[in-house]
Amino acid sequence: MTSSTPAIVILGQGSLATARCLQQVYPAAQIHGLAGRVDGADCSYQEFGATLRALYQQDTPIIALCAAGIVIRTLAPLLLEKGAEPPVLAVAEDGTAVVPLLGGLGGVNSMAREIAAHLQVAAAITTSGELRFGTCLLNPPAGYALADLETGKRFVSDLLAGHSVRIDGAAPWLDQAQLPQDPQAQRAIHVASDARQVAANELRIYPRSVAVAVNADTADLLPRIRSALHQADVAVQSLACLVAADTQMASPALREVALQLAVPLRFVPAAADIAELAHNALAPAQIIVSAADMAVAVAAQPLDVSRIGRPRGRLAVIGLGPGAAELMVPAVKAELARATDVLGYETYVRMAGPFRDDQVQHCTDNREEMQRARHAFRLAAAGRSVIVVSSGDPGVFAMAAAVLEALHESDDPTWHSVDLEILPGVSASLATAAQAGAPLGHDFCVMSLSDNLKPWSIIEKRLGLAAQADLALAFYNPISKARPWQLGRALEIVGQHRTAQTPVVLGRDIGRPGQTLRVTTLGALTVDQVDMRTMVLVGSSTTCTFARSGGGEWVYTPRWYGEKPSG
């Protein structure tokens, strides 16, 4: 399976059933449907060409349910750039054909076989080397790294031209390949971790069989690691991971070095010295370099990094936006794809899906915020990759504050070692404002009218001051069955500082199915027009409205104040 979540792109309603079938292979994949022609897709798009090219340039694997020629013609202008080349496949609308088009080195043929097996059809593999030899020599399996792509292409071309090959080292994935093998052949596939220069007529593949145990406090850590590998005659490409004591889990230096080496970090219980730490973490690998601050271990086979210690736990607090998939920021989508555990109010967790079978969902009541935050830290401290879900933006009347409060109150060092990140989302106030125009175009105030967590007297005081300051106002949680009178009282307070003609925007379920947008005035607004799922935006003294060409009104608050500037 590809490591990046693909996008499934369809043009018509007839493709939706096949697209849903493909989501069983890639549960995190979203179905992109053409607006006006597809109902029930995860998100919609306006233009096929622009959408496909944007996905390609974002390095997103693409499964397009349409003719292969349409896809090729659409992406042709990008193919000369030679940047990223994600897998691109064309699948027949009825699922009867699967054609890999681009991304041979990105695993497109593997994806094609996965999809074809699920659809119970044959994949149309056309790659010459793979057809001839039954394997892609330039795309070794997980645990191995190709030395040089351009040299590899020439090597495969030589084999296709009739040259024979020998295999030096262990390459079990080639046991069933139909290679023209000869023990005396001049050309060799060399599988080893040594650092010697790649020879002519050689396809060099490195097994990721090396780990380095380090002390994060070591000065010049990256040069020291490279020096230790050189001393051990080990190629950097064979490095599988860095290992350190769990007491150093939050070290920025370790994280930076791991990023530069493009390897994962694993953490184990602290030991008396590096040699003992390496032995505890990497046995039965052979320790070939041992110093006071570093040890290099080499295994006979590629290392299964998942079995070495544990990773640094991660906790991301994410905002889904108002509900529409296209309004979810890309960083949030990527976080959802990598998560092991998802926590949140059940409604929001469902909005965040679909999820893979291996992703654990922890749904709780909407009032259990602190319990949810503490549960998230316990999971992350155990090495899990955890998400806490909020609608809108997590920092606006949502879970980010609760998570930080839980951390602030805790003296557990494992919680403070968690990799914590807050990822923004489009808040309901901003989504509603965008639908209406720009009612929050100048200074504005965002308030919750719920008195569950603060006294109503505080709400009244803040309302009065914000209205007196002539700020545009955005009201969250404006009314509920338990609080039927509070919105009316809030409007009375605002009305002391606003005229009855002040524009008011009511956005209900903006970004979700059945959304409604209504523009009214402060004088005409009644509490029965609002419920808990309505965002209320009250304009300032300068907020204006004018007719839209297609019906309705635009609402905006100009950026100037007082007299309009000249020019």
How is this structure best described in words?
The chain contains 17 helices and 28 strands. The mean pLDDT is about 90. It is globular. It is about 30% helix and about 25% strand. Helix 16 runs parallel beside helix 17 (about 485-495). With about 575 residues, it is α/β, with parallel strands linked by helices. The protein has five domains: about 5-125, Rossmann fold (3-Layer(aba) Sandwich); about 145-205, no CATH class; about 210-305, Nucleotidyltransferase, domain 5 (2-Layer Sandwich); about 315-425, 3-Layer(aba) Sandwich (Cobalt-precorrin-4 Transmethylase, domain 1); about 430-555, Methyltransferase, Cobalt-precorrin-4 Transmethylase, Domain 2. The strands form six sheets. It has a six-stranded mixed beta sheet with strand order 3-2-1-4-5-6, sandwiched between helices. A five-stranded mixed beta sheet has the order 13-12-11-15-14, sandwiched between helices.
Write the layout of secondary structure elements.
Layout: E1 7-10, H1 16-23, E2 30-34, E3 43-45, H2 48-57, E4 62-65, H3 68-75, E5 88-91, E6 98-102, H4 108-119, H5 128-133, E7 144-146, H6 149-160, E8 165-168, E9 187-191, E10 202-207, E11 210-214, H7 221-231, E12 239-245, H8 252-261, E13 265-268, H9 274-282, E14 286-290, E15 294-298, E16 314-319, H10 330-338, E17 341-345, H11 346-352, E18 360-364, H12 369-381, E19 385-390, H13 399-409, H14 413-416, E20 419-423, H15 428-436, E21 437-438, E22 444-448, H16 456-468, E23 472-476, H17 486-495, E24 503-508, E25 516-521, E26 534-538, E27 544-547, E28 553-556
Parallel strand pairs: 1-2, 1-4, 2-3, 4-5, 8-9, 9-10, 11-12, 12-13, 16-19, 16-20, 17-18, 17-19, 21-28, 22-23
Antiparallel strand pairs: 5-6, 7-10, 11-15, 14-15, 23-26, 24-25, 24-26, 27-28
Helix pairs in contact: 12-13, 16-17
